[in-house]
Every structure is written in C-alpha cells, then in structure tokens.
Design brief:
This protein has 273 residues and is α/β, with parallel strands linked by helices. Helix content is 41%, strand content 18%. Mean pLDDT is 79; it is low at 122-128.
C-alpha cells in the first residue's frame, strides 16, 4: 500500500484528500504546519508528499523555496507534489518547483481521477523486472566520501527501495545465512551489479563474501549485468580477469558515476529479457 503525507493548513481539504486517497487504497497522514511536517518526516517513510505551496504562515518567498528543499532532502526516493491555490499561478508554482517538485496540481482540480494520475505518473517504481535496479558492492573505506553520494543520486532516480546499498537496507542484512542472502540479491534480484573496486576491496572480509556471490553473475550469461568501476588506485589483478574493462572513476565525481550507471541500466541491450 502506498503511503502519502499531506501538508496543508486547511483541515477540511486535508480530510477531503484523505477520503479520496482511501478510495484508491492509499494510506495518508495529515499535517497542518511546516514544523510538524519536518519532524514527521524524520520518523516516517512516504512514497509521496503533497505540499501546499502557500501556507497561511508563509508567503511565496525564498523561505518557502528553502522549506521545499528541506522536504526534498528528507524524502529521497519519494515524490514531492505541490498543491496550488487560486492565488498562486501555475507560473509561480513552476518557478518555485522547477528544481524541486515532481509535479503540481491546482486544488480546485483535485478529484480521485487527478490523484490517480499523480500517483501512477510519479510513483518510484523499478523499471526492471527484478527487485533492485542496481546493487552496489564496495569497500567501506570509500562509503562516506564517494559511495554514499552515488547511492543518493541513484535513489533519487529509482527510489531507495530499488537500490541495494547496505545503508538503505540495514534491517535486512543481519542474517545467519548472509552468503545465501547476498547470492540471491546479486545473482537473482538485481538488474545491474556495480562493483566499486580498490585495493581495500581485496583485503575486506565482507567484500570477499560479496565477491563470492557476485561471481555467480560473472559465470553465467548475465555477465553483461556486471559493471566494474575503479574508485581507488592500485593493483586489482587479484579480483578481475585480465580481459575485464573497468570504468576509471578516480577522476570522476559521484554524480558523474551515477549518471553512467543510470545510462547503463537504461540500455535494454545489456540485459537478458
């Protein structure tokens, strides 16, 4: 079931939206002020946030833009939908949201059909038949400075649930059968496996465990679904065969690496169907 957070200072409208969404089998929470909304987003995960673009407590100013940006940072992988009233033109809404909003709707036009269109058009679904669009394997030494920004970019594109990055799935990973779990994730549940390589990868017990699972991708026809990326300098011959071609990311930004991964996933000729 999809989950939506509704932010508006008009309680009557919120209750109307809640009823309409319930008819679409969507769970919703109602918030009437900005400060409560940010706190609520710290504790809950949503597929969508519907936000009034002009609350009574705030004019259409730079502060409103900053609030939208704050929400966007907290709902990585979800979609932000702006709701406009009669006193806020579509042009103004566009100016506010062109870098932040995924869509917007005028309140006077809200009905069940309009809500269905918004939910179906913007829900962060996997574009592939597998659970994960991409799975990341990497040495922990590079997590904060490189891998996390890449994962965040991928999550913005596909949604956190469709990116296997260990920090997104901490509840699932502790497992007495970790080898079996990793083999399932890398070999069967991921459309593309991205291995971020550095000398530290060879010496990491956890990376060695991941690599045993990833070997299952190399040794079958899905080898095209493996994307090796060099993120650290040093010898890697202990990991990949001499014929392997790596993307050298030592001089690329995380955003540039994420862009190349997304292009690889978007290429339908690289995968079995």
């Amino acid at each position: 079931m999809k989950r939506v957070l509704l932010i508006d200072d008009d309680e009557a409208l919120l209750n109307q939206l809640k009823d309409l969404l319930a008819g679409l089998d969507v769970e919703s929470d109602l918030i009437t002020n900005d400060s409560d909304a940010l706190g609520h987003l710290e504790e809950n995960v949503y597929d969508f946030v519907f936000l009034d673009l002009r609350m009574a407590e705030d004019d259409f100013t730079a502060s409103r833009f900053a609030f939208c940006a704050a929400i966007k940072r907290k709902i990585l992988g979800a979609r932000l939908i702006g709701m406009t009233g009669g006193d806020l033109t579509a042009t103004q809404a566009y100016e506010l949201g062109k870098c932040l909003l995924d869509d917007f709707v005028e309140k006077r036009d809200i009905n069940q059909a309009a809500l269905r269109r918004l939910l179906e058009a913007t829900v962060p679904m996997s574009p592939t038949r597998r659970r994960f669009c991409v799975a990341l394997s990497y040495p922990s030494e590079y997590r904060e400075m490189f891998v996390k920004p890449v994962a965040d970019c991928l999550a913005y594109e596909f949604g956190r649930r469709h990116v296997f990055y260990d920090q997104f799935h901490q509840a699932e990973l502790p497992n007495v059968d970790a080898d079996i779990l990793l083999q399932r994730i890398y070999a069967r549940e991921s459309e593309l496996v991205v291995v971020m390589l550095a000398p530290e990868y060879v010496n990491s017990p956890w990376c060695k465990r991941e690599w045993r699972a990833i070997r299952g991708v190399i040794d079958n026809p899905r080898s095209r679904a493996l994307m090796p990326i060099r993120i650290g300098k040093g010898k890697l011959h202990e990991i990949l065969p001499d014929a392997a071609i790596l993307l050298d990311a030592t001089n690329l930004t995380p955003a540039e690496v994420a862009e190349r991964i997304i292009k690889r996933i978007d290429n339908p000729f690289l995968f079995e169907r």
